[in-house]
Design brief:
Largest sheet: 6 strands, mixed
Helix content: 25-40%
CATH architecture of the largest domain: 3-Layer(aba) Sandwich
Number of strands: 13
Shape: elongated
Distance between the termini: 52 Å
Number of helices: 6
Order of helices and strands: HHHEEEEEEEEEHEHEEEH
């Protein structure tokens, strides 16, 4: 289909639906959302077809950014990219380097770096969770393991890439993106019940542990009395988060009630137990990662749990 036929086709689509798109009168029901998106992309192609080759380069970046912003509110741009075929500029000089960032090989954070000889331009990264990051190198934390699509715009160039989480290979050397403390690995070997483990980190975040039905891993729960580290380290290996506390004596009842309520707010893959000699009143522990809290605020260990649960060899 040549450009003249395309122009007439898109002009017809614009006359049919552009007024509704511009006024915002179409609702985002499953069917009408598709109509509204079709309007947007028809308008995009018609807009491009009305410009000469020299102007198209300048106009393309604004139009595609607008289309991507629209997709973030429900249009689903990846399903409509065929409508923009023929208008994307060559991307042969734009590459993306991806490395894992975080405390363990199971981290769901990644560093994405645009590799291009032309660095004197803007870089925008669009993620499927609706966030937009700006910069030649950005750090993004994904919600779950799996494959994600990321769209990069670098000046007039574009690139759609696939990111597999967790990212394999050598990690990036930067700090944990959440400010958590990374703990060097101490292994994951099983040891006979009753054998004391020698941990370099106290409390540990990995290392030797017991294994056996009814012993370790222990059932998720709130344990007011201490549970041996050799037991709950096995929970860490299974992707659990362990929240430790120490009152240096008797704990106030409201403090214990708050910890108990915190446990019931998550429950699955969560152990809360006392740890005598803890350097801070509260510490959340995941596989090879910790974060201490001087004051108990349930939102903070809950956020740690949400980002660390499942990040382990058997998570």
């Amino acid at each position: 289909m040549n450009r003249d036929i395309l122009r007439r086709e898109h002009a017809l689509q614009i006359r049919r639906c552009a007024p509704s798109c511009e006024r915002g009168t179409l609702k985002l029901s499953p069917v009408r959302r598709n109509i509204r998106c079709t309007c947007l992309h028809a308008m995009t192609r018609e807009y491009l077809s009305r410009h000469s080759t020299t102007r198209r380069t300048r106009s393309l970046r604004f139009v595609l950014l607008a289309a991507l912003v629209w997709s973030n509110v429900g249009c689903g741009l990846p399903g409509y990219t065929s409508l923009l075929d023929g208008f994307l500029l060559p991307t042969s000089q734009l590459e993306v380097q991806i490395k894992r960032r975080g405390c363990s090989e199971f981290s769901k954070s990644a560093v994405l770096t645009a590799v291009t000889p032309n660095t004197d331009r803007s870089f925008q990264w669009y993620f499927t969770d609706g966030t937009v990051e700006v910069g030649q190198s950005v750090v993004h934390s994904f919600n779950n393991r799996g494959e994600y699509q990321v769209t990069l715009f670098a000046g007039s160039e574009s690139r759609v890439i696939r990111v597999s989480i967790p990212v394999l290979g050598e990690p990036d050397d930067g700090p944990d993106p959440f400010g958590d403390t990374c703990i060097p690995p101490e292994g994951e070997q099983h040891i006979p019940q009753g054998t004391p483990a020698s941990y370099r980190s106290k409390p540990p975040a990995s290392g030797p542990h017991y294994s056996g039905a009814g012993l370790a891993p222990i059932a998720p729960g709130f344990y007011e009395q201490p549970v041996q580290p050799e037991v709950w380290v096995h929970n860490l290996e299974h992707g659990n988060v362990v929240v430790l506390f120490d009152c240096q004596g008797d704990c106030p009842s409201d403090f214990l009630d708050g910890l108990r309520a915190f446990f019931y707010s998550r429950q699955a893959k969560l152990v809360v137990t006392r740890y005598p000699g803890l350097p801070v009143p509260i510490m959340a522990v995941g596989w090879q990662v910790q974060r201490g809290f001087n004051v108990f605020n349930a939102e903070e260990p809950r956020a740690f749990y949400d980002r660390r649960v499942g990040e382990a060899p058997e998570g």
